[in-house]
Amino acid sequence: MAEGAKVQDLDVIRSFRASMIKFIEASNAALTDGESDLTRRQAWCEGEQTSFWNHQIKKLNELIMQLKEAIRGKQIFRDSTGRTQSAFDEQKKLRAAQARLELAEQKLANCRRWGKQLQREHLNYRGGVQRLQTMLSSDLVNSVATLETILTQLDAYLSAGAPSLATSEASPTPPSEMRRSPDEAPVAATKEAADAERKPSENESSEPKEGA
After folding, report:
1. Over its length of 212 residues, how does the chain's per-residue pLDDT go in tens digits?
2. How many structural domains does the chain have?
3. Interatomic CA distance for residues 189 and 182, integer angstroms
4. SS3 at position 84
5. For the chain, where are the alpha helices, taking DSSP H only?
6. What residues make up the domain containing 37?
7. Is residue 44 part of a domain?
8. How far, in Å, CA of 113 to CA of 106, rounded?
């Protein structure tokens, strides 16, 4: 026969259940924050930064073309004295624009490379926390519900009071199996002896007399 549970304090169960609920809430919040952070960084790298550097590259290419045209114009056309105009400033700006273009192209390449890396890390993160998410959304939630059911049943048990074990375990003894007590045995023996003494006298009175 299985032994009953020895519950001494329901507040311990209530406290444990409350701790489980807090753990579930905190874990879900942490997982949500991690997912949001990865999604935000991936969107920033693949979207905002990629778009920004593409726009910068387009602007720099246009500036470089304008500077080259200006330099070419000054090399072709001469001033009133017949001398070629100086294109020093335009050449200086051109070198700066070309350096900025090279940097922008490197930034764009980095965004594309890190965007792919973030995609892989995002998938690895989801795979790594899948088991924890399943436990939080299923196993622990079911455990909390089970504890709530146990508390409800124990509260009802305590409110109703424990059943009497003597009443539930006692069973009536059939009359045929009842035994006489030691005090009753001599009385029965005396009664049987008196009956035996009366029987001969009755037989003698019933027999006819010889002289009749």
Report:
1. 456 666 778 899 999 999 999 999 999 999 999 999 999 999 999 999 999 999 999 999 999 999 999 999 888 877 777 777 788 899 999 999 999 999 999 999 999 999 999 999 999 999 999 999 999 999 999 999 999 999 999 989 888 865 544 444 444 544 444 444 445 445 455 555 555 555 554 445 444 444 43
2. 1
3. 12
4. strand
5. 10-43, 50-76, 88-134, 140-160, 165-169, 184-206
6. 14-161
7. yes
8. 11
